[in-house]
Amino acid sequence: xxxxxxxxxxxxxxxxxxxxxxxxxxxxxxxxxxxxxxxxxxxxxxxxxxxxxxxxxxxxxxxxxxxxxxxxxxxxxxxxxxxxxxxxxxxxxxxxxxxxxxxxxxxxxxxxxxxxxxxxxxxxxxxxxxxxxxxxxxxxxxxxxxxxxxxxxxxxxxxxxxxxxxxxxxxxxxxxxxxxxxxxxxxxxxxxxxxxxxxxxxxxxxxxxxxxxxxxxxxxxxxxxxxxxxxxxxxxxxxxxxxxxxxxxxxxxxxxxxxxxxxxxxxxxxxxxxxxxxxxxxxxxxxxxxxxxxxxxxxxxxxxxxxxxxxxxxxxxxxxxxxxxxxxxxxxxxxxxxxxxxxxxxxxxxxxxxxxxxxxxxxxxxxxxxxxxxxxxxxxxxxxxxxxxxxxxxxxxxxxxxxxxxxxxxxxxxxxxxxxxxxxxxxxxxxxxxxxxxxxxxxxxxxxxxxxxxxxxxxxxxxxxxxxxxxxxxxxxxxxxxxxxxxxxxxxxxxxxxxxxxxxxxxxxxxxxxxxxxxxxxxxxxxxxxxxxxxxxxxxxxxxxxxxxxxxxxxxxxxxxxxxxxxxxxxxxxxxxxxxxxxxxxxxxxxxxxxxxxxxxxxxxxxxx
Amino acid sequence: xxxxxxxxxxxxxxxxxxxxxxxxxxxxxxxxxxxxxxxxxxxxxxxxxxxxxxxxxxxxxxxxxxxxxxxxxxxxxxxxxxxxxxxxxxxxxxxxxxxxxxxxxxxxxxxxxxxxxxxxxxxxxxxxxxxxxxxxxxxxxxxxxxxxxxxxxxxxxxxxxxxxxxxxxxxxxxxxxxxxxxxxxxxxxxxxxxxxxxxxxxxxxxxxxxxxxxxxxxxxxxxxxxxxxxxxxxxxxxxxxxxxxxxxxxxxxxxxxxxxxxxxxxxxx
Amino acid sequence: xxxxxxxxxxxxxxxxxxxxxxxxxxxxxxxxxxxxxxxxxxxxxxxxxxxxxxxxxxxxxxxxxxxxxxxxxxxxxxxxxxxxxxxxxxxxxxxxxxxxxxx
Lengths: 609, 269, 103
Known about the structure:
heterotrimer; A: mainly alpha; Cytochrome C Oxidase, Chain A; globular; disordered N terminus; B: alpha+beta; 7 helices; about 60% helix; elongated
């Protein structure tokens, strides 16, 4: 009965769109509707995720088979990138470019736009019962800046000397003196991306503050909304110092200032090639750049992980048919994480020779921030306790796998928080493994859970269950094959950012050297390469599933196929412009699952008692 | 369905959307200029002995610009008040003064920039350092290039630019500063103008003031748009129009606020 | 401060003019202090920053109505200011506590 009504309504919505709706351009390209913008973000970000992944595969190849022609793709690389990929080989400079751009693309162009901008745009207004974002046109501008930033970043691959090579952190003075305009492109791209993030963050916060539906009090907001709220604040306040750093480095690069070039630094390459000219201006501080960068850099880590936690919380509560355990604790924890993340940044800089007092301070705050993080994870685990768990669906599998994977990533971070342990592990593959466990099997699993979970709301069809599970199990296996060996390599002393995968340090080449890497360490490079390629294959079922389900997927039985409580599921499918049939009125908390005495095992937020 | 609280305040927050938006934006601006001020402090305390110059900028001109911005700030709030009294004509007059002030500020600033770009700092082979306003540049009868600096200040190059103010004081007393100085190409060891690349002080001065000037221009454009082509909203939705004036005004005051700190930090300290 | 009644607005206007004069005086005092030789550099800096802060207080407090604003804005700006102080002070502390401080 209700289903047919929905059908009729959907039809009528569709028809009005045909009659007087905006044209294709207005509707899909220059749309101001938060859902379309969310989808634009999602599609673009997923493309960048794939590009970042390809770069990673090429880097793995270079690490395992240094200076060997890349099979299959080699000629293509040479055509596209010219000399840097002569004979289809990845030159050391090109490896550095790939490394820098892999990090940049993954962090700023793939993960943040996906978990924050895409999910946030689509889901947050629905969950708080709003008709749209507070500033729809600013929302559109935010996407356009992001897109432009992405274009600038990608273009930099094809200029002479190629893209930026100084790592995603772009430390000065290295970044300033490498002879490539790629760094300039990088900086301009970053300014655009930062602008986009700021506009997005203002919009998110204003929306959550101002546009909550009647009855949607702060403590009735789904935890996902809280998480996006905190994330938006992190972006709003942490990004500007990086913008300062980017502008100053841009000045160094283009105008010849020396903000980050200390007096007396001898330069051997670049435009400022004489030691004298560097000294003539001088007075700059290389450490200043690191402070400004990591003031963003650390909150950014939480920008990457928090939204994924939010998605996982929604999925787990829904699939365990239990209220989220310790909702208030979770809210306070995420606020604490957000607050503390601003005062931990220099734990990335123990190796700069900071004094013991300041090291102790940052060490302490870093350890403190692990407490709310563990609280969050614990609450998610306890939510499962005694639940009536629907385990065998792709969203739940991904959400459940997130917990131990993020656990590994988080716990392996503890040694890095202590400066004495960090001195050994800094800049080794251990660090790479640590933060990739947080971001790859962590955040990416979270966002996969989100895609499988909300797909039926966006399209009205479910993604194929069987192939979803194939995707999940294969991804889980190969993710671990890729990243687990890196812990071992790192602890053995393998340093990051080496195009030969540490071969230069291997004991085979330096039999008498101290601290050479033994053969097992080196052989893992091949294992990682194989794991990465298989991981790539494992994504094919997902990509096919994603597109084919648009047309052939099983139709969702109702507007609320997961029988969820939050407002996003109480809309027509897909939600029309304006989102709700009638303005929702919220009368209860966000997770009323298995309420004693209720007719069904879930009670939507807008359903009166 | 319409987006709510575009003009009317939401009851629990007491604010309309744009006001929340502008304050959030200003929060990020605080961090932006805060990052720059923090950088300024770091660069200044970290500068090697003798390399941080003072008293290079024209204080009277800086003072005039400060007054101009303060005046524009008060006309913005007065314009807003006039609008609340439904006195559209008065609003227009006040806001016209604001826009004029913005233009004045930018014009003065660009003259100041020009003044610095044409100020040359020359180290001579003798170890003397002379800087002055470039008056003339040419070739003499023998075909040798030369330049003439007006109001030249000279001091030993080893002393560093931090000792320049002392030299200025002495040479003002002796009247040496009033005589033009002619320097032949053969005497010159190195020469550069007071551009951002001259030293870290000028680097941060130009970066901060240029970014501030961009804010002035952006703010003036928004205010001018609301004043001119956007004014039709006054007839259809006066409440919303007043809100726009208020929000653009908040941004303008922030720009003024930044200058209030920039002026002493860059000109006086 | 959102008073729309004519009397309130007239009062506001008066207040704005007062603030304007205060700011002018502040500017004059700042510049005057610059020409006065103070015993130490630190004192000059202190005086200049105090005057700037007072001027800033009047602009933010009266022109931007922060004296009489909604709680939400106080919370947002309070946290922002706190994080700005964190950036400033921790960076300076880290710099001061670094044995090789020239970089």
